[in-house]
Write a structure and sequence with these properties.
about 80% helix, globular, mainly alpha, about 0% strand, 2 domains
């Protein structure tokens, strides 16, 4: 399967999952309070730390290793299983102290249910890794779709039945079980679930670096929320986390399909001794062509987006969305930094980058959170540029590129973003009350923005226009083939 087709399938998969997740968010935002949603955010953040240690780089290791023999896969499974069992016990025992620390008694039951999900991880992740390595994103898309729909249906159903924040916990368990069952149908033609310790030192060495790095990046996202939960309460956590979700919609939708594909693609090029610098710069060109215009639209249309997605009871988060969306314009390399370093043999570089940058970023955002939600949001204008500058310099050491080439790669997307934002901004200025637009006018602004983006692709001859043209040609051929067969 080609990388282009893999990206398309992965994008369809992740976009569908994101749309289902946003649909769930829209409904639950009207059924549950910000405080109840904040409890679920705290619970997931606490358990997620143990999940990173449990994974121990297993998926990344199997993707990048030269040959994932049955013995290698079984060793990865053994490593993950032996880490999972004691971590699950620790999480179970710490559930009560965590509930007392945050003053949320129900957090104990939430953690107990999600520990069951945690226990199933070692049985599904090796299969997922092998499917990803082989670029079998059609199967992954099917599994993801079933899992997403089951999560949405269970969450909404239980919320309607009065399960409150526990709806998220039980829905997670249902979706994880279904995903595992479907994974088992994609089982390779050799037994995975055998205890084996062949070459465990290589797995351990890679996993130590990968898990340490992932833990740092996870703490970057979640620790400020945990600090907010302690200083300002669960309701503030709910507001801030939902503001982050809305602000990051372009990343989680348009770029969602890139994440699972980029490491296998870069790793494949590295194994074939192809130059990685050109691929890295081209990936940034494509990412910013999607990310920058869409993020500007979120900034301009924040008020109607929040009204439609979450309802008027969440309007207090609109100023947070404005701040965060503007800051996320700088966050464009996030999907490709670690994959390009790993593919270039720089797994240690990813850890060094995290060790140097993430504690500083956590300190900035967590420290600002003591001064309120808005201060925490504004602090991203310090933390994000710091990380991006450091990460780009780290990549430059491993995959040399010229700064002039980087500017040339980003310039077309900057022009495209400005062109795409003009029409929505004019609609806001002409018919808006401050940043407030009616829903019909917001739809008009969005439609004009998309039309400007499509026109700008071809007017500016942006490299993304070739990908759009290729996609349209493929759809046209498919429709023509279906018509001819009738």
């Amino acid at each position: 399967m080609t990388v282009r087709r893999s990206v398309i399938l992965s994008t369809i998969d992740r976009t569908f999952a994101t749309l289902v997740r946003f649909g769930t968010l829209v409904v639950t935002a009207r059924l549950l309070t910000p405080e109840e949603i904040g409890v679920s955010v705290i619970g997931i953040a606490v358990l997620g730390m143990a999940g990173i240690v449990r994974d121990f780089g297993g998926v990344s290791y199997l993707i990048q290793v030269d040959e994932p023999t049955p013995r290698v896969v079984q060793t990865v499974f053994t490593t993950q299983l032996l880490l999972t069992l004691p971590l699950a016990l620790i999480c179970f025992l710490l559930a009560q102290p965590a509930a007392e620390f945050y003053g949320v008694p129900g957090l104990r039951e939430f953690l107990w249910v999600t520990v069951a999900c945690f226990l199933l991880g070692p049985f599904s992740s090796p299969i997922y890794a092998l499917l990803s390595r082989n670029l079998e994103f059609g199967r992954i898309a099917l599994i993801s779709a079933v899992s997403s729909l089951s999560y949405a249906a269970t969450t909404i159903g239980l919320a309607l039945a009065g399960f409150h924040f526990m709806s998220f916990a039980w829905a997670t368990l249902v979706s994880v079980v279904l995903a595992l069952l479907l994974m088992l149908f994609s089982h390779p033609n050799f037994p995975i679930y055998r205890l084996r310790f062949d070459n465990w030192q290589a797995v351990f060495k890679f996993g130590a670096f990968d898990s340490a790095r992932n833990m740092l990046y996870y703490l970057q996202d979640q620790l400020p929320l945990l600090v907010l939960g302690r200083t300002l309460g669960a309701e503030s956590v709910g507001l801030f986390q939902r503001a982050v979700t809305v602000s990051a919609m372009p990343t989680t939708t348009l770029l969602a399909g890139l994440g699972p594909v980029v490491l296998p693609a870069f790793a494949s090029q590295a194994r074939e001794n192809k130059a990685l610098a050109d691929s890295f710069l081209k990936s940034l060109t494509m990412i910013t062509a999607l990310l920058w215009p869409a993020t500007l639209w979120v900034f301009i249309l924040a008020d109607p987006i929040v009204r439609v997605l979450l309802g008027p009871q969440w309007l207090a988060m609109v100023p947070l969305v404005h701040i965060l969306a503007a800051a996320y314009l700088i966050w464009f390399p996030v999907y490709v930094i670690n994959p390009i370093l790993i593919a270039a043999g720089g797994i240690r570089d990813t850890l060094m980058l995290g060790v140097f940058t993430i504690p500083v970023m956590i300190a900035i955002v967590s420290g600002a959170s003591f001064f309120g939600l808005h201060a925490a949001a504004w602090s991203h204008f310090i933390s994000i540029p710091f990380y991006v500058v450091c990460s780009m310099l780290m990549v430059k050491r491993r995959v040399p590129y010229k700064m002039s080439a980087l500017v040339a790669a980003l310039a077309p997307s900057a022009q495209l973003a400005l062109l795409s934002a003009i029409a929505p901004a004019l609609v806001l200025l002409a018919w808006g009350d401050g940043y407030v637009l009616s829903i019909p006018m917001a739809l008009l602004a969005g439609a004009l923005g998309v039309a400007s983006w499509l026109g700008g692709l071809y007017m500016l001859r942006h490299p993304m226009s070739h990908e759009v043209g290729h996609l349209l040609s493929a759809v046209q051929r498919r429709l023509g083939a279906q018509t001819a067969s009738r």
